[in-house]
Structure formats: C-alpha cells, structure tokens
Design brief:
Blueprint lengths: L2 E8 L6 E11 L5 H7 L5 E3 L6 E3 L4 E5 L4 E5 L6 H8 L10 E5 L2 H12 L4 H18 L7 E6 L5 E7 L2 E7 L2 H19 L7 H11 L1
Parallel strand pairs: 2-5, 6-7
Antiparallel strand pairs: 1-2, 3-4, 5-6, 8-9, 9-10
C-alpha cells in the first residue's frame, strides 16, 4: 500500500517554505505512474515555486514493485535497517518469494532498479564490481575513484561508471560473458549461503567470494 504525506520543505536557495509530497511507501501496482517517476527522479525532486531552484530529497522509504515481486527499503540515514531487516526476514509474510533488498543510499537504490530492469541478478553484479574495485585500488589509486555504479545508457547498453566526488571520470562495458560464467558456476552455492541476505553491496560480495573459495 502506498503512503505519502505533505511536508514543509525549506528551499536551499531562497529559504522560502513550501509543501512537498513525501512518500513513506510506494506501490507501483497501485500507482503505476510512480514506476517512471521514481526512475526519472520526479518523485523526489523538489522545485521551489518562488525561485525555481531544485533539490533531490533524500529520505527513508519503502519501494514495492508488486507486479515484479521486488521490495527495496531505502535507509538514507542508516537509522532503520535493523528493524526493517527483522521484518523482511520473517517467514510466511506477504513478501515470501520477493527479491528483498535494503540499501543505504538513494544512488544504491537507483542502481538496484537499473540492475533489475536489465534482468540481472544484483548479487552477481556486486561480485563483478568487487573485482573491479580491487583492480582500481591496486592500479589506479592516483585517480581517487570513490564510486563505481552499474549503469545503462540510452541505447540499452550496460556498463559501469567510475566517479570521483560525484563526477564521472571513466566507464567500462559490462562483460555479459563473465556475468554468465559466474552465474553458471556459482549461483546455486550463492543461493545456498545467502538466500536471505538483504544488503547486497561490496562488503557482502567480498564476504561471499571468501566463502566460495
């Protein structure tokens, strides 16, 4: 069920206050238009009626793509993931059979959507990203790359973006053959040891690779 409320937002530029619709939960089966509004940032972009300044609001919310059995909790302030983890791991609830994830930033949320939209398993993608990170830290420390994100361009081609302080500095193609090879060789073992894991990130990937040997 979708839930939202109007909240007072102070414009970061002019200081004027206006109401903005803030979502606690979004169900795209109930509101199909939200599927696109989430992806193009319209759902979270505040625009000041007085000065025209815009800001992307970052807050906690639950994203429920019911038609595809995807549930993502965005814990933007890292305050609630422990409680949400307990709820999502309960057996026999309405979300059995879902891909359930907890992410700790809005950028991580957008990346999960891109991965799922591409029909990929985010666990395999994170394992590949972990290997890329290791290579970057070993060979390209001088580039000071601080983010690597999965991305899809306008032509539908997948790849990884390398960022420094929020700016893209490089990119690389997504190796689908490598993805398929890892998936074929390790997916059943990954399922066996991490089926209930909710936070799938670099730390998770490093731990899984170590366990896989």
């Amino acid at each position: 069920m979708s839930q939202s409320a109007m909240q007072e937002i102070t414009c970061p530029k002019c200081g004027k206050k206006h109401s903005f619709q803030v979502w606690d939960s979004i169900n795209t089966l109930e509101f199909p238009e939200m599927k696109e509004k989430v992806r193009n940032d319209e759902a979270f972009r505040y625009r000041c009626p007085d000065c025209g300044a815009t800001a992307l609001l970052n807050y906690n919310f639950l994203y429920h793509q019911q038609e595809d059995k995807i549930l993502i909790f965005v814990d933007a302030d890292s305050s609630s993931y422990g409680d949400m983890e307990k709820i999502l791991k309960q057996r026999g609830n309405a979300f059995d059979g879902y891909r359930k994830r907890i992410v700790l930033s809005y950028n991580d949320f957008k990346e999960k959507l891109l991965i799922f939209d591409a029909g990929l398993d985010d666990r395999i993608v994170e394992i590949i990203k972990s290997s890329i990170w290791d290579n970057v830290e070993e060979r390209y420390k001088d580039k000071h790359i601080d983010e690597i994100y999965f991305a899809t361009n306008e032509d539908g081609e997948n790849g990884f973006l390398f960022r420094k302080e929020g700016h893209m500095v490089a990119s690389m193609e997504f190796d689908k053959a490598l993805y398929n090879a890892i998936k074929e060789a390790a997916l059943s073992r990954i399922d066996a040891i991490s089926r209930d894991d909710l936070i799938i990130d670099r730390n998770w990937a490093k731990a899984i690779v170590a366990r896989l040997g």
